[in-house]
Amino acid sequence: MNDNSLNVSVEQAKLLGNALRIKIIGQLIDKPKTSKQVADLLRETGGNVHYHMKKLYEGGLIELVEERKFGGVIEKYYKSKAKWFNSVGDTQVDPVLKDNYLSKDSTALSLRLHLTPQQQDEIKEEFKQFLENWVMKTSVSDGTQTEEYSIGVKIVSTELKSEEYGD
What we know:
WH_DNA-bd_sf, Transcriptional regulator, 167 residues, Arc Repressor Mutant, subunit A, 34% helix, ArsR-like_HTH, 5 helices, two-stranded antiparallel ribbon, DNA binding, two-stranded parallel sheet, DNA-binding
């Protein structure tokens, strides 16, 4: 598994703007699985998961890693290309996180810290683990009514880019 981030296009970012697709990617990180296996793990319908996996595959976010013949059926095993996805330029990975999105419910939390480079790496990893835990915690539906939320963490230096380096 590639634990590094994958830079994504605008089209790929749009594919990631769906909670079920994030759950599917979460199931395909460590071990390749079929759409049926993913559907069973997530307690979702096979057709729904197959549809979303097809979109993720066509969008280049998951890859076909193996085909096995089982009886008269060919099972296709997919794996996520990355655990994390980065937008390039001004493109938001999730457009819901843009400041001008008119949500019925939103919470913005922010603060400033002085961090060493090591602390910056550490806090990034802690946020990643936190978000991964919540993806797993919410992956399986227990039948309770839920609402989809977008959660993003942005760590930004307060120093402006230097013109000297062409940034």
